[in-house]
Amino acid sequence: MTDTEEKIKLQQLEMNIKEGGENFVPPITEEVKIKGQTKKYDYKVKSKLVSMPEEIKVLITAIDLVVVTKIKDLVNYIFKITDKSPKKFRFTFVNRMHNLCLDIVEKIFKANEVDMRVYDEDKFALRQNLQKDAMTGLKLLEYIALLACENECITFHQYEFIAKSGAGCMILLGNWIESDERRKSWLARKKG
Fold first, then answer.
1. 101-128: per-residue pLDDT in tens?
2. CB 105 within 8 Å of CB 72
3. Total domains present in the chain
4. How confident is the model over 4-24, as pLDDT tens digits?
5. Are residues 57 and 147 in the same domain?
6. Measured between alpha carbons, how far is 30 from 19 in angstroms, rounded to an integer?
């Protein structure tokens, strides 16, 4: 799909939102304002429109969200650098960071698997809890990396990379949570 086709598609989506048309499809790009600058995050989406019985058309996606990709990259980096850590830290900092990494990835995957095509308060709450648990795990991972750096388990450069990547993941995860809130309110209005 060319840039022009993507712009046309996004304009059509915006028109559908404004008109409240029944062909509305949730956006596949998010614009985020950070310190006065607008940045656009695209999702890698393979999608098709399906018809629901006398309801709206829904975008069914096989999504690999940007946040998932970034977290996978962070986890791979942590596993690589901690492989070279001193043995005396293997059962403290290294083990804890590995477990946190795996927990974060697990929560992100579980949150992404929750079916959000129709309004269901329990499903939204489950997904939001998983997303918030992943956010807490990222914050804790960053703190443990700081402790590991202070105790010379990892270098300052490695800690700095973990902190920057973790902050980027937290921003993307926060945007995902906000996007779900908008979707929830939109589906609630359509239902009611």
1. 999 999 999 998 888 777 788 889 999 9
2. yes
3. 2
4. 665 665 566 555 555 544 444
5. no
6. 20
Select from 33, 63, 93 the last residue of a domain. Answer: 63
- Which domain, by its residues, includes 129? 65-191
CB 130 within 8 A of CB 184: no
12 shares a domain with 98: no
CATH assignment of the domain containing 129:
1.20.1440.60
Residues 104 and 33 reside in one and the same domain: no
Tell me the chain's radius of gyration from C-alpha atoms: 20
Chunked mean pLDDT (size 10), the chain, 192 residues: 61 54 44 50 40 36 68 93 87 92 94 82 91 96 95 93 94 90 84 70
**Long-range contacts, 175-178 (Cβ 8 Å, 24+):** 175/30, 175/32, 175/41, 175/67, 176/65, 176/67, 176/131, 177/128, 177/131, 177/132, 177/135
